Amino acid sequence: MTTKIKIPTPLRRHTNGLSTVEVNGGAANVRGTLDTLTAQYPTIGERLFDGQGQVKSHINIFLNNEDIRFLNGLETNVKDGDTVVLLPALAGG
Q1: By C-alpha distance, which of 87, 14, 77, 29 is closest to 56?
Q2: How many C-beta neighbours within 10 Å does residue 29 have?
Q3: What is the reported pTM?
Q4: Domains contained in the chain, number
């Protein structure tokens, strides 16, 4: 099973400059997919997760254009060929 993960520009330094990372394996949900990503690129984990294993509040995650907060969160099922998008919230004024 292959899942694509879109990496935003501010996080690409943690994926050797890659804008898209393909993860392979039997990850059944978004959490498992992100665990596989952090196993391949360990420094990205501290940018995505807080100390309790929850996604940091300023990181939005989409599965096939659907915000996982409105699905089943990190437990949202992932199928072969799905795309996960990591999108940090922007602030400024």
Answers
A1: 87
A2: 17
A3: 0.89
A4: 1
